[in-house]
């Protein structure tokens, strides 16, 4: 990265001292992650944001839904800044509040809403988290989805899982003993989600038709191909991958889990990793004694995570030094109150 920008970022951070706390998601660019005070998966970053009451400014190097969650979990006095407002998440955009309200109306008319617990993946807008909080549900991340679902099934007989069909299906089928037939796919673009009343009544898991376009690129062929090319390779994937990919993999988990697994792996072992490329490249560089490769032959960055680059970070920090807050992320108080209930429920999950 540009040495002048590196020096400017370092100077601005030093000038701000403990007033600023920089959080960095594991998918961030190297040039940005070097300035993070803490790195983590989305669960760890939510907890870290909540645990920094002294920082006046939280600069969130990640995507919009993470910054919104940080705003909800921090005090009113603290300001959360996303260095580039275009850093969204295409998966989060796949569930819009009006669509979810329509789905809930469908379940209400069928008489099953009272027995349905909404669960949303962290990768969703504050509006969706607010909806879930209003209806007694919980937020989950890729590191606690099973615990969140266990809790949800103690509250009701059915779960509406938003917005990632893959995390929902993979957790229910591979970790909780549900069958594929227990899950149905609700398409928000079709009347009644494209499902019959019987399907909606009988399903245990109603999965929203959302997915991550980055992880969606890994296929069963990617797994078979790498196993053929690299005998003995361990396949380690994120649960946002398709069901057949996760089923064929050796290990599955959040970004934090992926890092810990590689750190604990013996020298000489070979790993094909199915997640975002910035993280895989960093792991390969940090562990030259292990053979670490990307699961697919094609490159696969998350384009919105990559929007946060060093020029944007420098700009946001230097503006703070000048006393100006740019790109602040705020959630309206009513939405925040309900979203907070669903986030607090997640933070209170046992284990
Ligand atoms: P983690 O919670 O595993 O960091 O995942 C966040 C994400 O956006 C993955 O695509
Ligand atoms: Fe969203 Fe996928 Fe990017 Fe994660 S990797 S932020 S789910 S688009």
UniProtKB/TrEMBL annotation:
SUPFAM superfamilies: NadA-like (SSF142754). It holds the Pfam family NadA. Its EC number is 2.5.1.72. Iminosuccinate binds at residues 25, 42, 121-123, 142, 238-240, 255. One of its GO terms (cellular component) is cytosol. Binds 1 [4Fe-4S] cluster per subunit. Transmembrane segments: none annotated. It is found in: Cytoplasm. GO terms for biological process: 'de novo' NAD+ biosynthetic process from L-aspartate. Pathway: Cofactor biosynthesis; NAD(+) biosynthesis; quinolinate from iminoaspartate: step 1/1. It is an enzyme of class 2 (transferase). One of its GO terms (molecular function) is metal ion binding. Keywords: 4Fe-4S, Cytoplasm, Iron, Iron-sulfur, Metal-binding, Pyridine nucleotide biosynthesis, Transferase. Catalyzes the condensation of iminoaspartate with dihydroxyacetone phosphate to form quinolinate. Belongs to the quinolinate synthase family. Type 3 subfamily. NCBIfam families: nadA, PRK09375.2-2, PRK09375.2-4. This is Quinolinate synthase.
């Amino acid at each position: 990265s540009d040495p002048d920008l590196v020096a400017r970022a370092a100077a601005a951070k030093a000038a701000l001292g403990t007033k600023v706390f920089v959080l960095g998601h594991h998918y961030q660019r190297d040039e940005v992650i070097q300035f993070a005070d803490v790195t983590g998966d989305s669960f760890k970053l939510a907890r870290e944001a909540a645990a920094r009451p002294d920082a006046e400014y939280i600069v969130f190097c990640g995507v919009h839904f993470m910054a919104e969650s940080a705003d909800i979990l921090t005090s009113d006095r603290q300001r959360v800044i996303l260095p580039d407002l275009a850093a969204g998440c295409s998966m989060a955009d796949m569930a819009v509040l009006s669509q979810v309200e329509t789905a809930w109306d469908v379940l209400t008319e069928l008489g099953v809403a009272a027995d349905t617990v909404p669960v949303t993946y962290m990768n969703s807008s504050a509006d969706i988290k607010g909806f879930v909080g209003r209806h007694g549900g919980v937020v989950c991340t890729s590191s606690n989805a099973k615990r969140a679902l266990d809790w949800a099934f103690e509250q009701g007989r059915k779960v509406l899982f938003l917005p990632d069909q893959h995390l929902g299906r993979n957790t229910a089928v591979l970790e909780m003993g549900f069958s594929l037939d227990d899950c149905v796919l609700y398409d928000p673009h079709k009347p009644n989600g494209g499902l019959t009343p019987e399907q909606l009544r009988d399903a245990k898991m109603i999965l929203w038709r959302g997915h991550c376009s980055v992880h969606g690129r890994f296929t069963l062929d990617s797994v078979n191909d790498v196993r053929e090319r690299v005998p003995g390779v361990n396949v380690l994937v994120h649960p946002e991958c398709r069901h057949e990919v996760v089923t064929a993999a050796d290990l599955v988990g959040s970004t934090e889990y992926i890092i810990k697994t590689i750190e604990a792996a013996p020298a000489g072992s070979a790993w094909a990793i199915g997640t975002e490329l910035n993280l895989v490249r960093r792991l390969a560089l940090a562990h030259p004694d292990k053979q670490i490769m990307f699961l697919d032959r094609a490159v696969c960055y998350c384009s919105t995570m990559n929007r946060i680059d060093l020029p944007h970070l420098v700009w946001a920090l230097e503006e703070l030094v000048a006393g100006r807050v740019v790109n602040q992320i705020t959630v309206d108080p009513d939405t925040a109150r309900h979203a907070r209930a669903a986030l607090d429920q997640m933070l209170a999950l046992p284990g």
